[in-house]
Design goal:
Strand content: under 5%
Number of helices: 10
CATH class of the largest domain: Mainly Alpha
CATH topology of the largest domain: Tetracycline Repressor, domain 2
CATH architecture of the largest domain: Orthogonal Bundle
Radius of gyration: 22 Å
Oligomer: single chain
Largest sheet: none
Helix content: over 70%
Structural class: mainly alpha
Order of helices and strands: HHHHHHHHHH
Shape: flat
Length: 212
């Protein structure tokens, strides 16, 4: 006779394998949708908003696949904004790793942030922001882009003597995100003088509060 417990174990194992494979497949679908959305929005710019049909077609997927992961286009745009910030944070972290001093790391951080105003990068980022300007205020739309960017400054700010490195980093990140956003919407880039002043401001932030 067969062992019912063994049969149950086999069933559970096969079910787990199926779920694991489905998870990989679904992750691939989401990545394809995000990449397709970025491509379509970049091509359309601010001339017209991307449609779900455009994104699905570019991803080579179906409407069912889209709505399996996102309840609306607004949810996709919110995810795309979050994904963009995560990519930016990884890029800036890589650049900061090239520096041995906290001052150098902060300078790299500022350079990485301001690089978002450079031509093609700015055009694509603005297109995503423009598509996201219709996103509501619900939980799915709530995203704090400065949080992962501020986290990169915690260690260098601590080394520079900040009495409150997390707060100082949050304030600096909010200021830079706002500055970059202003330039993107205006279609401008910081001048050399402005970039220098911004860098000086960021370097002074962790030591300002510790002065007598």
């Amino acid at each position: 006779m067969s062992d019912p417990l063994a049969a149950t174990d086999v069933a559970s194992r096969i079910a787990a394998q199926t779920l694991a494979k489905r998870g990989v497949d679904y992750a691939d679908e989401v990545r394809r949708l995000l990449d397709a959305a970025l491509q379509v929005m970049g091509e359309l710019g601010t001339s017209s908003r991307a449609r779900v049909a455009d994104i699905v077609a570019a991803a080579g997927l179906s409407n069912d696949a889209f709505y399996r992961h996102f309840p609306s286009k607004d949810a996709l745009v919110a995810a795309l904004l979050e994904d963009g910030v995560a990519r930016l944070a990884r890029y800036i972290a890589h650049q900061m790793d090239k520096e041995a001093t906290p001052e150098g790391q902060v300078r790299r951080w500022v350079e990485g942030m301001l690089a978002q105003t450079h031509e093609q990068t700015a055009a694509t980022t603005l297109a995503v922001l423009w598509n996201g300007s219709s996103v509501g205020t619900g939980p799915e739309a709530r995203h704090e882009p400065s949080v992962p960017l501020a986290a990169l400054l915690h260690e260098p700010f601590t080394e520079l003597g900040s009495p409150s490195p997390e707060l100082d980093a949050a304030l600096v990140a909010h200021a830079l995100v706002g500055t970059v956003s202003d330039h993107l919407w205006a279609g401008t880039r910081p001048s050399r003088a402005e970039a220098k002043r911004i860098t000086e401001f960021c370097l002074a932030a962790p030591t300002r509060g510790s002065r007598p």
